[in-house]
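Field reference: "sequence" (input) and "structure" (output). Example, Cupin domain-containing protein:
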Amino acid sequence: MVRKTNVVEQQNVRGGEGTVEFHHILKEEELYGHGKLYAKVVLKPHSSIGMHQHVGNTEPYFVLKGTGVFVDNDGSRTEVHPGDVCVIEPGQSHSMENNTDEDFEMMALIYNEAAK
């Protein structure tokens, strides 16, 4: 099967600012209980995803385009560029900011922590 991505635009994601587009690659049920989200995420200029915690899952980001600021669990701020990977461990919090006049694009995968 071949299909187009499902694009959903959201405002103020997780208490952040502005507009974020989610280009859903797989539906949650297509992750077969292993995860919650697999999508290209586009932060429009001067937009952000607010600080939020991952409990029982993790969400690595892979930067595709633009310059962003990754805010890590400890509050540290790191400028990120294409090819960078942002790692969020289960239980940690994070946010992402686009403070530029261009779109910022990344791949995001929310997958479940392994059962112990």
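The chain is about 0% helix and 55% strand.
The chain has a mean pLDDT of 95.
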